[in-house]
Specification:
Layout lengths: L1 H4 L9 H19 L1 H10 L1 E2 L11 E2 L32 H6 L4 E2 L4 E2 L9 H6 L21
Parallel strand pairs: 1-2
Antiparallel strand pairs: 3-4
Amino acid sequence: MVKKLFSDENGNFDENSFNNAYYTAYQKYVELTDDEQFENLAQELEYSPSDRFKPLNGKVKDVSVEYRHLKNPLQQAYGIEGVNKISESTKTKEEVAQSNQIFDPETGKFTNETPESLSLIDKAVGRTLIYAKYDEDGYHIDPLTG
């Protein structure tokens, strides 16, 4: 089988390719059996802060919690119903829109008010609020939230 593996298309044994493969295997064997390699590897390993068997000068892995605030305009839950599964929103799009800030087109900025926070008089005689949505189906990127 080895002879077949290192033979050319005419069936002649290629000693150079065999020697190269043998030498590569020999080098890997030397690396694996070298005690110095294991010492270098032990110096590069990172250990848990609570590991009782960590060497005295061993590196400690940072296990601190990282909190990231993500934009979630539809208030969907991620990973609650299943692993890596995005659940359906518990609110309709209209309900979500009512809890978001009002956009003032005259200033081009969002106000600190939401439709829910407006009083009955503001809703009756105040500015007109419009629920805007896309006219066509498809994937649209919101220029404000990305």
